[in-house]
């Protein structure tokens, strides 16, 4: 499995924890699929992507390590990346709350791939 696939998998697993609803429960509406829920999913996926990217490139995120520095820099990039606007667009397109997971999953996948590419571009 490639590093990009591992990062995507880790972000998807984190998304599943944030959204908190298994696929077999798609027809139920709960707090995780309420308006604004995608903001939590987008932020969680972005942080997981930053963590896995920095660990893949620099090793464990230990205090004082290059991995920690990478993660700090990545968080700063995320702060300016427009995640709130991205989440608002997802909320606008994923309006059927009974299909929230089905709708948000490819959106999060695209975000993860986009962020990995962005981190690669910024890498010295």
Characterization of the model:
The protein has helices at 3-19, 37-58, 66-79, 83-93, 100-122. With 124 residues, the protein is mainly alpha-helical. It is elongated. It starts with a helix and ends with a helix.
Specify the overall morphology.
elongated
Instruction: Give the H and E element order.
Output: HHHHH
Low-confidence residue ranges: 13-29
Going by helix content, strand content and strand pairing, the class is: mainly alpha
Q: What is the average of the pLDDT values?
A: 80
Q: How many distinct helices?
A: 5
Query: Care to count the β-strands?
Result: 0
Radius of gyration: 15 Å
Distance between the termini: 25 Å
Describe the structure in brief:
The protein has 124 residues and is mainly α. The protein has helices spanning 3-19, 37-58, 66-79, 83-93, 100-122.
Helix/strand layout:
Blueprint: H1 3-19, H2 37-58, H3 66-79, H4 83-93, H5 100-122
Helix pairs in contact: 1-2, 1-5, 2-3, 2-4, 2-5
Summary tags:
elongated; about 120 residues; 5 helices; mainly alpha
